[in-house]
User: Fold Futalosine hydrolase from Halalkalibacter kiskunsagensis.
Amino acid sequence: MTYDLKKDQNKLKIRVLIVTSVSAEKEAVLRGLGEATYFDVLVAGVGQAAAAATTAKELATTTYDLVINAGIAGGFVGKADVGSLVVSSEVIAADLGAESQEGFLSLEELNLGSSSVQVDDNLVTHIVNEGKKAGLSITTGATLTLSTVTGTAQTAAELAARFPHAVSEGMEGFGVAEAAKQQGIPVVEIRSISNKVGPRDRESWRIKEALATLERASAILPEVFK
Ligand SMILES: O=C(O)c1cccc(C(=O)CC[C@H]2O[C@@H](n3cnc4c(=O)[nH]cnc43)[C@H](O)[C@@H]2O)c1
Assistant:
């Protein structure tokens, strides 16, 4: 079964923008996509600002039907294992807000706007189903975006308590998602897990394995959107 991005648009061809943060992620995505021609893959750089600026610039000049933020990420322990894949049901800017004596206050609580972007349920289901058929271990849930990689058990526990439905953290998702949302284009974040969210231990990051999972995940996309 395919996900029909064309259904309301009377179009024959779709176009998908995939935004990564570094070139190793882009190369993995391109290897997975193979010959598929209707995907454009960009490297935006690390962090939300670069991700949002690059995505917005591209969307201003080219018409897309879907935007995907793809890359590696940290997985919350017990939610998403190293080597597995996560597909976002919601993309959340986890550190956008204010500290207070009573705890963190989100933009929503401050009445200053929204710090999350919802992902279409059917889109998630189609990607998950196709990924499972391909033998990938996939979790769906909220993907957090943070400007600082979590490096202590305390921060990991605080995030897990604030966002019980979170499965992973990365540094670009919300930037990409907000740029897509402002253009009315659906968005999803797809991340392969390279490390646990928790005490910093860069030696334990399994980047090669995560890039291999990202390649396998990208290989299902032509089937999902054919
Ligand atoms: O050194 C390499 O070969 C290499 C290859 C691919 C990617 C990298 C990165 O360092 C990517 C940075 C990118 O990773 C995301 N990320 C991964 N784990 C976490 C995490 O625990 N918390 C937050 N972000 C994470 C992040 O989106 C960065 O943009 C290196």
The chain is about 35% helix and 25% strand.
